[in-house]
UniProtKB/TrEMBL annotation:
It comes from Methylorubrum rhodinum. PANTHER family: HYDROLASE, PUTATIVE (AFU_ORTHOLOGUE AFUA_2G14860)-RELATED, MONOACYLGLYCEROL LIPASE. This is Haloacetate dehalogenase. Residues 34-291 form the AB hydrolase-1 domain. The keyword Hydrolase applies. Its EC number is 3.8.1.3. InterPro entries: AB_hydrolase_1 (IPR000073), AB_hydrolase_fold (IPR029058), AB_hydrolase_sf (IPR050266).
Length: 304
């Protein structure tokens, strides 16, 4: 069994009793420093931050958290995405951070973690000092793109199908399924960007049936008629925007490749009209494929 302790030197493993069961995190950096919460993406875990977290911990109290259903955090059962709606997960994470003593914090989220992050910042703006979003556009924008270009990001509608069909398909060979996604979304088209120790942690989680179900429930929550899109639509109709400083990092070889609208433009016309945008020469996995450029952008933003 992989433990990943050596990926985060000086960090302490934490088990936090919270809403929806136990949550796993690693924490490092001075306890008196500004708290910085890192939320990972699909199909990964907190381990994706291992090349950035030690450096960020020089100036912040860094908490790298496993999302509900991912890594080592609890994976409660759910139907139709209910337990994995980003509004619900965001509220649970606020409670987890309170139990760690952090009422207000800085926040960075990649991929699915980015979706939880911007929902948390919209719903509880007083909690978030600064927000960094890595390689996503709003869920409503994502579905507009998929509906305009059928076949684009095919895993979204595929994993959002009713249970148990996608769970069964993935469960036949989860390593093949998820490793194929890692390869296709990486600029190099292979697994060379991923530390073998991190890959071992990803594989350990994504082969567990209840976690496969949790991943699909995550996508059902973000499905075409799911609660995540409904929340976006309601907020857009009400003209709600993010009130804190926002940084959008976009990969040149995945998110912004051949797209009709750059990620920063999508955010500026929706939830973050004053967002700062930086393009990273990377595939989707910025923190692992382009750690130096990603770290420099985050340090500059959170150091302000």
């Amino acid at each position: 069994m992989a433990d990943g302790d050596d990926l985060f030197p000086g960090f302490a493993p934490l088990w936090i009793e919270g809403p929806a069961g136990r949550w796993f995190a690693r924490a490092g950096g001075p306890e008196e420093a500004p708290p910085l919460l890192l939320l990972h993406g699909f199909p990964q875990s907190h381990a994706m931050w291992h090349r950035l977290a030690p450096a960020l911990a020089r100036t912040h109290r860094v908490i790298a958290l496993d999302l509900k259903g991912y890594g080592w955090s609890a994976a409660p059962d759910s139907e139709d995405g209910a337990a994995y709606a980003k509004r619900r997960v965001a509220a649970e994470i606020v409670a987890v951070m309170e139990r760690l003593g952090h009422v207000r914090f800085r926040l960075a989220g990649h991929d699915r973690g980015g979706r939880v992050a911007y929902r948390l910042a919209l719903d509880a703006p007083g909690r978030v000092e600064r927000l960094a979003l890595l390689d996503i556009v709003p869920t409503q924008v994502q579905w507009e793109r998929i509906e305009a270009h059928p076949g684009m990001n095919a895993h979204w509608p595929s994993q959002a199908r009713p249970a148990p069909e996608p769970e069964r398909e993935i469960g036949r060979d989860p390593d093949a399924y998820f490793e194929d996604l890692l390869r296709r979304w990486s600029a190099a088209g292979d697994l060379s960007a991923f530390d073998p120790r991190a890959l071992a942690l990803y594989r350990e989680a994504w082969t567990v049936p209840e976690r496969i179900h949790a991943f699909c429930e995550d996508y059902r929550a973000g499905g075409p008629d799911g609660p995540d899109r409904a929340a976006d639509r309601a907020d857009l109709a009400d003209g709600r925007t993010l009130t804190m400083p926002v940084l959008v990092l976009a990969s040149r070889h995945y998110l912004d490749k051949d797209k009709p609208e750059a990620a920063i433009d999508a955010w500026r016309r929706t939830f973050a009209p004053k967002a700062e945008g930086i393009s990273i020469d990377s595939g989707h996995f910025l923190a692992e494929e382009a750690p130096q450029a990603t770290l420099a952008a985050l340090e500059a933003f959170f150091g302000q």
